[in-house]
Amino acid sequence: MKLKYIAFVLGILSSINVFAGGDDAKIKLNPTNWWIGMRYNNVQVLVRGNTANYNEQEVSINYPGVKLSKVHRLENAKYYALDIIIDATAKEGIVKIKIGKTSLDWPLKAKNSSGNGKTYAQGVTSKDLMYLLMPDRFSNGDPKNDKVPGMRDQSLNRDTVFNRHGGDLQGIINHLDYFNQLGVTALWLNPVLENDMKDRTEHGYAFTDHYTIDPRLGGNIMYKKLVEAAHSKGIKIIQDAVYNHVGIEHWCVTDPPMKSWLHQWPTFTQTSYKDQVLMDPYASEIDKKIMSDGWFVTAMPDLDQNNPYVAKFLIQHALWCVEEFGIDGWRIDTYAYNDLEFMNKCNDALMKEYPKISIFGETWVHGVPNQSYFAQNNYNIKYKSNLPGVTDFQLLWGINDVMSKPFGWTDGVNKLYSTLAQDFVYKNPYNNVIFLDNHDISRAYSAYNEDLAKYKVALAWLLTCRGIPQLYYGGEVLMTGVTNPSDGYVRKDFPGGWVGDKVNKFAREGRTSKENEVWNLISTLANYRKDSKALTTGKMMQFAPENGMYVYFRYDGDETIMCVMNTMDKAQDVKLSRFNERIEGYNMATNIVNKETKGLKDTWLIPAWTMWVMKLDK
């Protein structure tokens, strides 16, 4: 049943003339343009006018190969939704959309079909090493855009984690060679779309305009420049998508096209964050509704993806971003809180248009069954997700157990082992993103109490286990931070990213000996794995841990890598005969990190809290 327009939204927006023209008198078209040669050729253009009765006018299009099939006059009389069919005979040019006496330009471009899957929409795979960074906190390449007149958040204070710091896209461009040296092949940027909110805009997760890259980061032109520059260096770009919600200052909240654009409740209702209700065979309908339709927080209104206009708006925007900017894949924020049938439709549209594109969703849930429910899986259940991969929080909990709990039947490294043993539920577990930390949780080095030996073990595991490894910016130079009392403390500036910084961690001479030790470990393994099919696409075989000792292999027909992890506080012998199944036929092993060689007979003595990554040789 359609609910009444909620009182709490009206209360929040009491100072806004919701269905009036306001100060913004510009007519907007979303999407701003389209392309010929697209599989998705039936486009719905949302037109936002500048008068209260704007959609009472007649609409027409006269352009060869382009047909205006239907005109939808929306509930808010400022809006039209125009269904436009682009025939294969259409040519590049400017489509004139005539509304009343006004003619609006809607560009029609040629699709870059030759580069699809080659120079853009390439996807990230287990062959890649992905580097997650927050643009505002990474590097300030253009101080002129630190503050933009007219935007609500005019803060600029590096002495607090709660304000903007000025990092931008040019700053990222300036350090592309650094990523090459480190062995990074893909960058995942926290959201770059406009966040014209009053405060805490550094993270980017409260969009206020889908078709504008935040000008404080450099705007649309600079984003294209970054993508092109990264591609020229062999680095892919992953865009962070937020389908579930928008910022409360988004025009679709302050001036909604219709009342049902957002999920409606009589009073403010927050999501329960209880993902279990979505798969629970005994769950109540109200629990499911609160989980999916409840707002994330008061400042982030929840979009109603069951509304066909909202669904088209979001799907078209996703396609538009790939074609307009040339990105290579999507990370989807708060995946479990979206309407899951909508997500299947959105994913399907992207994958049909761009067959090699990668999509992975944030699934901050507990339990392998819960996590795998949201991905392509092998369950015989009613809801079947088409999401290729997820952020693998279950393996995060597993490696955290290794670092924080003594070895036991289900604890310590046995937790990691048993989690990987459940990979049979996924269609392709190699599509899952594995990580030690990110922008929402404590940095791994801090979580491990700044124990360097443990941190190095975790990093070696990250770069050799199945899946797509992801580093969080600054992890390579031992940046610290915990989320208590605020997540801002895990989002500090990368040292050296600002003119005048006392130290420059981008340069070897600016790093301490410990930092260079970690940086070199990552760089050595990351650059080695670029040419190692065994470590990227090869099979995996693990042996049940014994006495805190965990051994697994990555292998294919040409190469075998043996990974030996000692998670105990004392050195231990490893009897190699136990692993004859994989080492038979090999005589020697070379440590990929330090180049030391060892024979494959009898035993190896593995120091406490050490992981060896050994290439086997005949």
Protein architecture, described:
The protein has 618 residues and is α/β, with parallel strands linked by helices. The chain is built from 17 helices and 26 strands. The protein has an 8-stranded parallel sheet. Strands 19-20-21-26-23-24 form a 6-stranded antiparallel sheet. Helix 8 packs parallel to helix 9 and helix 11 runs antiparallel to helix 12. The protein is globular. Mean pLDDT is 95; it is low at 1-24.
Keywords:
single chain, 17 helices, 6-stranded antiparallel beta sheet, 8-stranded parallel beta sheet, 618 residues, disordered N terminus, alpha/beta
Structural class: alpha/beta
The gyration radius over C-alpha positions equals: 26 Å
Low-pLDDT runs of 5+ residues are: 1-24
Q: Please tell me the overall pLDDT.
A: 95
Largest sheet: 8 strands, parallel
Distance between the termini: 70 Å
What is the number of beta strands?
A: 26
Fold blueprint:
Layout: H1 7-12, E1 28-30, E2 34-36, E3 42-48, E4 59-61, E5 66-73, E6 79-86, E7 93-99, E8 102-110, E9 130-133, H2 135-138, H3 169-173, H4 176-182, E10 186-189, E11 193-194, E12 209-213, H5 219-232, E13 236-241, H6 251-254, H7 285-293, H8 308-325, E14 329-332, H9 340-353, E15 358-361, H10 368-373, E16 389-390, H11 393-404, H12 413-420, E17 433-435, H13 444-447, H14 452-462, E18 468-472, H15 513-530, H16 533-536, E19 539-546, E20 549-555, E21 560-566, E22 572-575, H17 580-583, E23 588-591, E24 597-599, E25 603-606, E26 610-617
Parallel strand pairs: 2-8, 9-10, 9-18, 10-13, 13-14, 14-15, 15-16, 17-18
Antiparallel strand pairs: 1-3, 3-6, 4-7, 5-6, 7-8, 11-12, 19-20, 20-21, 21-26, 22-25, 23-24, 23-26
